[in-house]
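Could you join me in thinking about how sequence relates to backbone shape in a protein? We need material for that, and I hope you will provide a protein of your own picking. Once you have written the record down, we can walk along the chain together:

…
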Amino acid sequence: MNILVCDDQKEIVDAIEIYLKNEGYQIFKAYDGVQALEVLEKEEIHLILMDIMMPKMDGIRATLKIRESENIPIIMLSAKSEDTDKILGLNIGADDYVTKPFNPLELIARVKSQLRRYTKLGSAQTSELLFQTGQLIVDDDRKEVLVDGELVKMTPVEYKILLLLIRNAGRVYSIEQIYEKVWNEPAYCPENTVAVHIRRIREKIEINPKEPKYLKVVWGIGYKIEKLDV
C-alpha cells in the first residue's frame, strides 16, 4: 500500500517514513500542498497524511483540491489541538485527525484503520473485483491480499488458489479441481503439490495455521474459504 506523507518539517516526514516502512508500507514524501498534488498525479496513493500549516498551499486547500476527484483516506496532522482545527479538517473532507506530537503506535493504528475502511468500501471502479470474508480481502484489481488491513505477499500460484476459493467462498473444491483450474492441466497425483501451497497460504493469512479461521479442509473432499461476516 502506498502512503503519501506531506509536512513542511522534514524531520517529521522522515520519522513517519521510518514508522510506516517498518509496517511494510511504501512512502512518498511532499513538503507542501503543491508537491502533494504533483505526487498524486504520478503515483497510485492509498492514504495521505496531510499537515495543516504549510507554505505555498496549506493542508486545508490541498485537501479541498484532492476531494474534487479522489476519495482516498486523508488523515490531518497539526501542532494545534483546538477543536476548531479538528472540526475544520473533518468538515472539508478529512477522514481523521492526529495532533502533533503524536504517539507512533497511535498513528500506525489510525493508518491501518483508515486503510481497512477504504479497502472494505473500495471504489466504484474496483468493487466488482474486491472479495472479502471476515478481515481477509483479495483485491483482484490491484492483485493484493490484505489480512486485518496488512498487505500479505503471495506467490502467483498461492494468489490464484486463494482467489479461486474466496471468489466462491463457502464452496468446497477438491484437490483435483484446484489443480486443474490453477495449473490449467489435467491433475495427475496433485495431492502433495496442492497441499504444500495450501499450507503456505495458511501460514500467511491465518493467526494460527493449525486452527484456521479462513482456509478450511473438508475431510475426504477438499478445501474451502469460510464465508464470514464482514
